[in-house]
Specification:
Structural class: mainly alpha
Distance between the termini: 25 Å
Oligomer: single chain
Shape: globular
Largest sheet: none
Mean pLDDT: 89
Order of helices and strands: HHHHHHHHHHHHHHHHHH
Number of strands: 0
Helix content: over 70%
Strand content: under 5%
């Protein structure tokens, strides 16, 4: 019953300490990225329920607004973190414990039981809050569909009763987006599919490391090629099209978003193998930070005002998500091995730990809060800087 104790859970969430064998930098990346996600979703809903849609076109021409347009990279950060933690924690666990003793078997039977255990553990951990929120979404959107002046932003009240089982199996991104229940759950589906693939690679890596590594590289290159092909055949130009223009073909599909997760897995293995102790020369550290910051800044602001062709657009679409993860890889490695300086202090700031611990629930809940705020209005919003600031402040206070 203590698991349902509000006091105990609040104390756990607000605890400003972490274990010595954790990666504190992750908490900062997670907290900042969650704020970025909420910012992007707030803007999307505000645009939908505004009376001056043309204001969005003006804002999209502003340099700083590229941080909103390129908000999808915040999700790549979460994919990267997921892959990193799965890999790091798995190798650390297998180094401390004999898996054969835990499964009470050997060989393929042991591997199979280990795989099943990993999947069941993840399913139980994620699904309870996920499906509680899914039920809230279905009921709330059905009520708003009948009582709000505005149409719901998606047809959850219709799709959820029909297709909830896709969410339960975490396969909803394999079907058309028009039939998706709880649109933002696409991330959970992709992340779970990546986890299943990652579990296979990790179990294989214990005895057949190079085979597992070869498969990881193969999957990575295949993801690049697939994304490039889809972007090219659909004439997708990243800095001209709406960021969500190809949601059903590129944005939510696991084969186009796999790169950051695999990079994260590689970084997790590096940190485990080196025990977070890597000696680097000063010139290496300086170059590493310059390249990392330059890559991340270019991905957010680099295409502003530029013209790129069909081939370049396809190449950019296929490589950009992985490039983002590579930029983060340096930050995590440098900060975890003593070369992060003030960046380490910021990302490891104990004040961010509570926010980091609730990012999963914040991700599930915040779109409901945004929709509730918008659909209770008695008139469209009027887009403007003051409105954006006040709405973001309100949403963050509710999360």
């Amino acid at each position: 019953m203590m698991a349902f104790s509000a006091r105990k859970n609040l104390l756990t969430i607000c605890d400003k300490t972490v274990g010595d064998d954790t990666i504190p930098t992750i908490h900062g990346l997670r907290s900042i990225s969650m704020g970025w996600v909420i910012l992007g979703h707030t803007c999307i809903v505000s645009f939908k329920y505004s009376d001056n849609m043309s204001y969005r076109l003006l804002m999209e021409k502003e340099f700083l607004f590229q941080a909103i347009n390129n908000g999808p990279y915040s999700v790549d950060t979460f994919f990267f973190i997921s892959g990193l933690l799965v890999s790091f924690l798995y190798f650390r666990t297998t180094a401390k414990h004999d898996i054969n003793k835990l499964t009470k078997s050997t060989g393929l039977t042991s591997n199979f039981l280990e795989f099943v255990g990993m999947i069941v553990y993840r399913f139980c951990r994620l699904t309870t809050p996920y499906f509680f929120i899914l039920g809230v979404v279905q009921v709330a959107m059905k009520w708003f569909n009948s009582n709000s002046l505005f149409e719901p932003p998606s047809t959850d009240h219709i799709n959820c009763p029909k297709y909830w089982w896709r969410n339960l199996l975490y396969i909803n991104t394999l079907f058309p987006v028009k039939d998706m229940c709880m649109l933002w759950s696409w991330y959970l589906a992709d992340d779970t599919q990546f986890y299943i693939l990652g579990a296979v690679l990790l179990i294989m890596a214990v005895k057949h490391f190079w085979t597992s590594f070869g498969l990881l590289i193969t999957f990575l290159i295949s993801s690049w090629a697939t994304t490039a092909y889809i972007a090219y055949t659909n004439m997708h130009i990243p800095n001209e099209d709406d960021p969500l223009a190809l949601f059903d073909k590129i944005y939510d599909k696991p084969w186009t978003r796999l790169g950051p997760y695999l990079v994260g897995m590689a970084v997790g293995w590096i940190l485990f193998k080196t025990d977070c102790k890597i000696h680097m020369k000063k010139v290496t550290v300086v170059l590493g930070w310059l390249i990392s910051i330059s890559v991340l800044a270019f991905l957010v602001f680099g295409l502003y005002g530029s013209k790129i062709g069909r081939v370049s657009g396809a190449a950019y679409s296929s490589m950009s998500h992985t490039a983002w993860a590579l930029g983060l890889a340096w930050i995590v490695i440098a900060c975890s091995t003593g070369y992060g300086g003030y960046v380490t202090k910021l990302l490891s700031w104990s004040l961010l730990y509570p926010f980091s611990r609730v990012t999963y629930c914040a991700y599930l809940v915040h779109p409901i809060v945004i929709r509730f705020t918008a659909m209770r209005l008695d008139s469209p919003v009027h887009l403007g800087f003051d409105m954006v600031v006040s709405n973001i402040s309100f949403i963050n206070s509710k999360n």
